[in-house]
Write a structure and sequence with these properties.
Length: 296
């Protein structure tokens, strides 16, 4: 099972989150039928969601990522929760699957895009949610999110998320690391960590199976750490028949009745996980009748 660790370095100057997300990414790609570069894009985004939704120890903490740039995959969406559940999707898939470059750290910028908007929404259980926005500049999901943390949340950070594929373009391994300095720490501390995490170092490490504990050692350049918490991770969606009916109800009673008279059943597909729900004509008519009663 995929695992996430939270810890701090021995000097208590750096907060570290590491996550092995291989099964999460595999399941997300299976549900959406993704391989190759699309799997890398979704996998890095899902992994980022897992390590970023860790500001509190609250299972109800929630984080949503929306990256909309000018690349062919369109919007990249992630919805992650403090209990370890995460879901996500790409707005569009490529007409023909593309294998990423053979470099250890393949770029996805040509497919994500280098111009657009990155929106991150945090819900930590307070009265109001926090939302920050920055421009997309690199087209590399983890690097743009790292810049967001520094610019919008004022948290000096290093973020690296990686997906390693096998020869068939399927997910072999996936993992991510987030490091953030505490107030008063020297800027050189995070600079040294960031220099080690970026580039080919993490994908090279993931040529073999690695645990979240080993990723901690890598992130802190071999220094000891104090474990502050751990949790399991899973790709899990909150959709269901009731949510599908709620989506249909936005059409209004007249349109729902018209839909019920069309041949065949009505299918509602969840964009986040790819699950489809079939709604039969009699259920549509009952929904229309209920809507009219509620609004009378």
């Amino acid at each position: 099972m995929d695992r996430l660790l939270r810890g701090i370095d021995g000097a208590r100057t750096v907060r570290v989150v590491t996550a092995v997300t291989t099964e999460v990414v595999r399941e997300g790609c299976r549900r959406h039928g993704l391989r190759g570069v699309e799997a890398v894009i979704l996998g890095r985004a899902l992994t980022a969601g897992c390590v970023l939704v860790t500001l509190t120890k609250n299972d109800d903490e929630r984080l949503r990522i929306s990256l909309q740039a000018d690349g062919p995959v369109g919007r990249v969406l992630v919805d992650a929760r403090g209990n370890g559940d995460v879901r996500g999707c790409l707005e569009r898939t490529l007409e023909v699957p593309v294998d990423p470059a053979t470099s250890l750290r393949p770029s996805v910028a040509d497919f994500v895009g280098r111009s657009g908007r990155l929106v991150l929404t945090r819900d930590v259980g307070l009265e109001n949610q926090y939302q920050g926005v920055v421009s997309v500049e690199s087209g590399e999901i983890d690097l743009d999110l790292e810049r967001y943390l520094g610019e919008s949340e004022q948290l000096p950070s290093a973020l690296a998320c990686e997906v390693v594929l096998d020869a068939q373009g399927e997910v072999l391994r996936a993992a991510g690391i987030l490091c953030q300095t505490f107030p008063g720490s020297e800027s050189s501390t995070i600079d040294e960590i960031r220099a080690n995490m970026h580039g080919d170092a993490l994908p090279a490490l993931l040529r073999a199976d690695r645990s979240a504990d080993e990723l901690m050692g890598f992130a802190l350049l071999g220094d000891d750490y104090e474990l502050m918490g751990e949790s399991s991770l899973r790709f899990r969606c909150t959709c269901g028949v009731e949510r599908a009916m709620a989506v249909v109800s936005t059409l209004g009673a007249d349109d729902i009745e018209a839909l019920a008279t069309e041949p065949g059943d009505t299918e509602v597909r969840c964009s986040y996980c790819g699950q489809s729900y079939t709604i039969e004509p009699h259920d549509l008519l009952a929904l229309a009748a209920r809507l009219r009663k509620e609004r009378s």
